[in-house]
Design goal:
The protein is α/β, with parallel strands linked by helices. It has 14 helices and nine strands. The protein has two domains: 172 residues, Spore Coat Polysaccharide Biosynthesis Protein SpsA, Chain A (Alpha-Beta Complex); 90 residues, no CATH class.
């Protein structure tokens, strides 16, 4: 079969036309996602996509009732398949789900990511027109509480996360990676699947291997997925600590991927930490001039943070805007410290 053929298409030599799209298997690793799981699955099953659909839920060892809810959802709709993911790790869950997928196109969705109704249709057309191995779009973070809204605003800003198109948007075209992604199954299999030793950054790492074997990763702003950000400082810090640690692991395995954008947070953490220590030591030992010069580094970061917060939050409520400086500092500090720590 060709990359885009389903079992019913076997023997054809041409790609199916967009008016007769192939089946798509939507793979979703879930762990403690009771809050959003039903909505996530409903969004997929109510898609306007014209081809057959399958949803494969890879169930980690949840403690919040997610597994019972998943069983209820599967019992109500034959298009939903359940598979076990004993480790709870995202990459292992994705591989297990793909092994149980029926179709030649694989859409990767998270347990707290809400796709729009036209998402799969737009993604399929982009796959067909570009012949890409993977297409994806924007991680459109949206919060519900004041804190979540502040995190969402930070995640969609250049100062918060850098200039990646899947965070802040951009023009359609080739990309290093995309958010989630709709793949040709053959591209995943030829690359060896998701690396199960990667706790985080597994999407980026797989896309890197797909590109290395000649596959095209395509970004389109026409695809936007609603992402629900973390709801507390502690959970946000843990998330970005893990992001930093595993980004360090990607650069260890693939040194050619190092870029200034990924080095900025650890460099900032080092500079602020060292300069703050010098400031305190110099002030305590009676060297006010040295203390004054050294203090310019943390003061400079604090000033930049506040200025960026005012710009990012200019259209937000005061309650959200006032949370932005601590949110940005948490994201930068945790990511940078995690990168320095390594996986």
């Amino acid at each position: 079969m060709t990359q885009f053929e389903t079992a019913d298409d076997a023997g054809r030599t041409d790609l199916p036309e967009p008016c007769a799209p192939p089946g798509i298997s939507v793979v979703i690793p879930v762990l403690n996602e009771q809050r959003y799981l039903r909505t996530v699955v409903d969004r997929v099953l109510s898609s306007t996509y014209g081809g057959p659909l399958q949803v494969v839920l890879a169930l980690g060892p949840s403690t919040d009732g997610t597994s019972a809810l998943a069983a209820e959802i599967a019992a109500a709709d034959a298009r939903v398949t359940l598979v076990a993911n004993p480790t709870g790790r995202t990459a292992a869950g994705l591989n297990a789900a793909i092994r149980n997928a029926r179709f030649s196109v694989i859409a990767r969705v998270d347990g707290h990511a809400l796709i729009p109704q036209n998402y799969l249709a737009v993604a399929w057309r982009a796959l067909y027109e570009t012949k890409a191995a993977n297409v994806g779009g924007v991680m459109a973070a949206e919060g519900e509480t004041d804190f979540e809204q502040a995190v969402a605003a930070a995640m969609r800003s250049w100062f918060g996360v850098g200039g990646a198109a899947f965070h802040i948007g951009g023009q359609a075209g080739p990309a290093l990676t995309v958010y989630l992604g709709v793949f040709q199954r053959s591209a995943i299999e030829e690359a060896g699947g998701f690396d199960e030793t990667m706790v985080r950054a597994q999407d980026w790492e797989l896309n890197h291997r797909i590109r290395a074997q000649g596959g095209l990763i395509w970004f389109t702003p026409d695809l936007e997925v609603t992402y629900r950000p973390r709801g507390s400082i502690n959970s946000l810090a843990r998330q970005y600590w893990q992001y930093g640690r595993w980004r360090r692991e990607v650069t260890r395995r693939h040194p050619e991927t190092v870029s200034p954008r990924y080095l900025a947070p650890p460099a900032t953490v080092l500079a602020v930490t060292v300069a703050s220590a010098i400031t305190i030591a110099a002030a305590a030992s009676g060297h006010p001039r040295i203390a004054g010069v050294a203090s310019l580094v943390p003061l400079g970061y604090a000033s930049g943070n506040i200025a960026a917060s005012l710009i990012i939050g200019r259209h937000l409520s005061p309650a959200v805007r006032h949370r932005l400086p601590i949110v940005l500092a948490t994201m930068h500090g945790a990511w940078g410290a995690g990168f320095l720590r390594g996986a």
